[in-house]
RNA sequence: AGGACUAUAGCUCAGUUGGUUAGAGCGCUGCCUUGACAUGGCAGAGGUCAGCAGUUCAAAUCUGCUUAGUCCUACCA
């Protein structure tokens, strides 16, 4: 093996091998365990959040596979309607074309072409990440099978009246010319103005204080063209006399009623509200109650119409409505119209005032354009009717959120759920299976032929298919069962349903998680006809942010491609990557500056395993995770540590060949039987290993990957490498070691490493495979790959509390000597004599049994046991309980320095003792606290008192010099 | 406006049901190229656990308030 760990040299070959051997596929043996991947956008690339979640999913998958489960990790991608169409339209834009120039069919061909081009990126990235997904089952939401599931669900929901079409106000994106659902709207606070307009009263009416006009306030003056009422509060005395009267809408000349409605807040502004039912969700409700006209004034781009149009609340056009609008507005963009309206009011002397005002502005999460409430025909899922079982499933514990706090968020949304607008005016997506005849009647079925037979339509009835497509999330909502072959392959569906855990971000609870629960429970039933849940647990990961806590986004230029961390990237390349293909090229300079400042050297190559370990270590239950490249470096070093530990193990378990790095024949590690004798260190590490194994299992159960990685890290580094491997050297190097002793330690060194590799394999698949393979001749492991090897289980027979206590003592003695060396500036390599004094029988036994360990690890010239009464020279000392570990000062140690060192210890101990005695003299503590706690404090106090006495006698002795 | 979450070492974060001398990684200081590893070893410095009050024998941990930040929902037109 190389002296340092070189990730790129080992990663790819193992992945190819695993995939070729079909290890990623379910075996058909054992209890099923399944995870559905949250499908990434097929035309996108994976970012740190994906890498993070996929690492967790892969760790879970590999863990369960090694535990003998029939494990399926289902991969796939999503067609991402708007996002993908947007990208392709931009590509067309570069050629100076629009999608309309191409026509629907050609355009969709172009999208497929683009998908083919970019679609491979994600699977390449996933392979580099080591994801053990079953590639033979890979699915795409626009595949024929999944499309069929979509049609099936649509038709069934429609027939059950859980899906309907209606003319309603929707969130309209004037940039993409499509409706979007309410959760695709982001409300952000922005600075705006509040305009106060005078609306003259009709028929000579007057207000209570004698004015001939009402004052209304608005943040959107342009909508006044669609006003159909002015509302006041029914109990507002200023206006009661005017209720039922009219105002003359300025500019338009429309005569509109003054209505009374509770919705109005008397204390805000003037207490008069203009009502524009076709352009505001609240006004729609008010208007509906009072049957005020629904007057639409905008076209699909939110430019003013030449003629306004009016509708009934049932959606019928009102033909006798006079839609005249003032000259000069037709075709004007909404914001130009706003300026003109204000100017015109001003000119008429009807502009009362303009005030600064902060308001919440709705913007599309894709287009970032301001969303317009707009009256259109759309398809809806009656979510309100489907929500209850989904709420109950969480309430009664069938589905559990990890962490628990997200359940409240889920309930809150589900309890206030709105019907889901699922139609999108896009070309890329699942076209809605609905047909219309020339009279506008709607027919829903799987295809046109079925429409005709289902609705008994003659062949000559002309039918046209609905042009719209479905929201991407509609197909994603079916993901857990559509990917398994529903509605045909019910055997597979039932085998892996419900899936075990969904790993995803909290930001898509509503978009995806909640809808999956509703759809799955509606369509998938168990043998008793009881609704089945899609997954038992929902593990919500935090959001990966950059090192400053900023959300990673292309426009901020702070995204990190996980592959760049794996392979490394130089700074120029990184800057180029971050500043190319930007929506706002003017930000390039700033991004370049920040990038160069944050990563002057770019990223070093760290390898997949180090990245995965880092991500795992960040997987605490917190909401936000700031990714710091420094952490990655630390874990890359950890990989190197593991690598070199393996080298040491190999050097001691294989014959060495002179002048060569190649390994010779395997040595006798007990893999073929023979007597073994375990050293204290052997018994200790075997015992400690059992605790580690138990902890790892526990952390998997509790989804505490951060604790798990920390536990593994500190065991491997601080126990296995720093202590155990050092303690194995005295055995290997001692020419008097017996065959049984050598065999025992060789076997332990290999066995523990083998177990560690298995324990950590789900997180670091590549390095563990590489090392595991190299150890096979000495570990006795069979099987082709570590990924299908058995995961370690606790072996109670190996726990050995005596060995743990004895070795703890050994460590303390060694640390004591090192301590003196360190603080007295004695060179680490210089052999020194050490005396052990004031010890009891246990100390003496431990000393006798471990003399060679102690001498070797503390680099001692001699180690002498002092009986009581033996004369002890002036020494620097460390205490291990009562036992004094003494380094004679002669020629080595400065008296003043030693005194200072002891005084520091005295001070610290005194302080602590005072605290404990304070507790113990407190009557209430002694009488109220549990006996065990009081006892513990007493023991601590006693120990400190003797320690202080020892330290004092040491000072006395030094003073006599 | 309502709700949720967060505040622990210079930085990024752990800290289970109240009882630890409050931990880790990175960074920092000193010494070390010892026969796995300088991507290393040994030793060390560094914290009033955001603030205030309370409950308790005992609070980083439980409760209330305050401050700062993040997010969600709803909005007053």
From TrEMBL:
It is an enzyme of class 6 (ligase). Residues 894-958 form the Valyl-tRNA synthetase tRNA-binding arm domain. GO terms for molecular function: aminoacyl-tRNA deacylase activity; ATP binding; valine-tRNA ligase activity. Keywords: Aminoacyl-tRNA synthetase, ATP-binding, Coiled coil, Cytoplasm, Ligase, Nucleotide-binding, Protein biosynthesis. Its EC number is 6.1.1.9. PROSITE patterns: AA_TRNA_LIGASE_I (PS00178). A motif ('HIGH' region) lies at residues 40-50. Residues 682-835 form the Methionyl/Valyl/Leucyl/Isoleucyl-tRNA synthetase anticodon-binding domain. InterPro entries: aa-tRNA-synth_I_CS, aa-tRNA-synth_Ia, Anticodon_Ia_Val, M/V/L/I-tRNA-synth_anticd-bd, Rossmann-like_a/b/a_fold, tRNA-bd_arm, tRNAsynth_Ia_anticodon-bd, Val-tRNA_synth_C_sf. Monomer. This is Valine--tRNA ligase. It comes from Reinekea blandensis MED297.
């Amino acid at each position: 093996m190389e002296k340092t760990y070189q990730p790129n040299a080992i990663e790819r070959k193992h992945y190819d091998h695993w995939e070729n051997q079909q290890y990623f596929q379910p075996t058909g043996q054992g209890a099923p365990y399944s995870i559905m991947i949250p499908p990434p956008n097929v035309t996108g690339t994976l970012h740190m959040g994906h890498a993070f979640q996929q690492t967790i999913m892969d760790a879970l998958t590999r863990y369960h596979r090694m535990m003998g489960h029939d494990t399926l990790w289902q991969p796939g991608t999503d067609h991402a309607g708007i996002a993908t169409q947007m990208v392709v339209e931009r590509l067309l834009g570069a050629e100076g074309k629009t999608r309309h120039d191409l026509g629907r069919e050609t355009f969709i061909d172009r999208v497929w072409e683009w998908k083919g081009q970019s679609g491979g990126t994600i699977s390449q990235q996933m392979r580099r990440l080591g994801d053990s997904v079953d590639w033979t089952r890979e699915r795409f939401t626009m595949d024929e099978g999944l499309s069929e599931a979509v049609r099936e669900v649509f038709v069934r929901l429609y027939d059950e009246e859980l899906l309907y079409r209606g003319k309603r106000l929707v969130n309209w994106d004037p940039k993409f010319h499509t409706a979007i659902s309410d959760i695709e709207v982001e409300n952000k606070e922005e600075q705006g103005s509040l305009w106060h307009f005078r609306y003259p009263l009709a028929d000579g009416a007057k207000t209570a204080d004698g004015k001939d006009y009402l004052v209304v306030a608005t943040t959107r003056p342009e909508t006044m063209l669609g006003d159909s009422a002015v509302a006041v509060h029914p109990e507002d005395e200023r206006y009661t006399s005017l209720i039922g009267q009219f105002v003359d809408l300025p500019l338009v000349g429309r005569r509109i009623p003054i209505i009374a409605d509770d919705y109005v807040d008397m204390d805000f502004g003037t207490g008069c509200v203009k009502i524009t039912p076709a352009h505001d969700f609240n006004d729609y409700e008010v208007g509906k109650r009072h049957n005020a006209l629904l007057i639409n004034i905008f076209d699909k781009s939110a430019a003013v119409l030449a003629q306004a149009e009016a509708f009934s609340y049932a959606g019928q056009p009102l033909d006798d409505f006079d839609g005249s609008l003032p000259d000069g507005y037709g075709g004007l963009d909404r914001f130009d119209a706003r300026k003109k309206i204000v100017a015109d009011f001003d000119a008429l002397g009807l502009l009362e005032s303009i005030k600064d005002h902060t308001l919440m502005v709705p913007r599309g999460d894709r287009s970032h354009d301001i969303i317009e409430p707009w009256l259109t025909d759309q398809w809806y899922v009656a979510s309100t009717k489907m929500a209850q079982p989904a709420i109950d499933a969480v309430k009664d514990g069938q589905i559990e959120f990890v962490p628990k706090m997200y359940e409240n968020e889920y309930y809150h949304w589900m309890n206030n759920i709105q019907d889901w607008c699922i139609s999108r005016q896009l070309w890329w997506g699942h076209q809605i299976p609905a047909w219309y005849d020339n009279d506008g009647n709607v027919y829903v079925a799987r295809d046109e032929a079925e429409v005709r037979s289902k609705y008994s339509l003659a062949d000559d009835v002309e039918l046209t298919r609905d042009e719209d497509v479905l929201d991407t999330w509609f197909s994603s909502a079916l993901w857990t069962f559509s990917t398994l072959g529903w509605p045909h392959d019910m055997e597979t569906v039932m085998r892996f349903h419900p899936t075990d855990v969904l790993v995803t971000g909290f930001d898509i609870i509503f978009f995806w998680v909640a809808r999956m629960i509703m759809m799955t429970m509606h369509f998938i039933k168990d043998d008793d006809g009881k609704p089945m849940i899609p997954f038992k647990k929902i593990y919500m990961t935090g959001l990966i942010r950059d090192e400053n806590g900023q959300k990673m986004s292309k426009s901020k230029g702070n995204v990190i491609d996980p592959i760049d961390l794996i392979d490394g990237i130089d700074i120029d390349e990184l800057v180029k990557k971050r500043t190319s293909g930007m929506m706002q090229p003017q930000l390039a300079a700033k991004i370049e500056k920040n990038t160069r400042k944050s990563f002057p050297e770019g990223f070093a190559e760290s390898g997949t395993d180090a990245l995965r370990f880092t991500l795992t270590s960040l997987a605490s239950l917190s909401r936000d995770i700031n990714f710091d490249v420094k952490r990655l470096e630390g874990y890359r070093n950890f990989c190197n540590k593991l690598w070199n530990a393996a080298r040491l193990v190999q050097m001691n378990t294989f014959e060495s060949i002179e002048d060569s790095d190649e390994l010779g024949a395997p040595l006798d590690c007990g893999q073929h039987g023979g007597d073994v004798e375990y050293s204290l260190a052997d018994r200790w590490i075997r015992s400690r290993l059992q605790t580690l194994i138990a902890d790892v299992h526990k952390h998997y159960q509790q989804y505490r990957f951060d604790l798990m990685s920390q536990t593994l890290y500190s065991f491997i580094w601080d126990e296995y490498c720093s202590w155990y491997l050092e303690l194995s050297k005295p055995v290997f190097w001692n020419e008097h070691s017996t065959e049984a002793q050598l065999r025992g330690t060789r076997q332990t060194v290999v066995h523990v490493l083998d177990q560690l590799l298995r324990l950590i394999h789900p997180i670091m698949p590549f390095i563990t495979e590489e090392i595991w393979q190299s150890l096979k001749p000495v570990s006795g492991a069979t099987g082709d790959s570590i990924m299908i090897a058995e995961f370690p289980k606790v072996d109670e027979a190996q726990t050995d509390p005596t060995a743990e206590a004895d070795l703890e003592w050994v460590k303390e003695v060694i640390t004591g000597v090192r301590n003196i060396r360190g603080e007295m500036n004695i060179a680490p390599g210089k052999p020194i004599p050490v005396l052990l004094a004031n010890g009891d029988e246990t100390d003496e036994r431990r000393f006798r049994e471990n003399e060679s360990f102690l001498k070797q690890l503390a680099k001692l010239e001699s180690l002498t046991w002092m009986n009581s009464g033996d004369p002890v020279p002036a020494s620097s000392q460390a205490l291990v309980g009562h036992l004094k570990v003494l380094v004679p000062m002669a020629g080595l140690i400065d008296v003043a320095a030693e005194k200072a060192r002891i005084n520091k210890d005295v001070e610290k101990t005194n302080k602590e003792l005072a605290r404990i005695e304070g507790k113990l003299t407190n009557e209430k503590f002694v009488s109220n606290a549990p006996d065990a706690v009081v006892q513990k404090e007493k023991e601590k106090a006693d120990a400190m008192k003797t320690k202080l006495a020892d330290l004092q006698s040491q000072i006395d002795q030094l003073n006599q010099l």
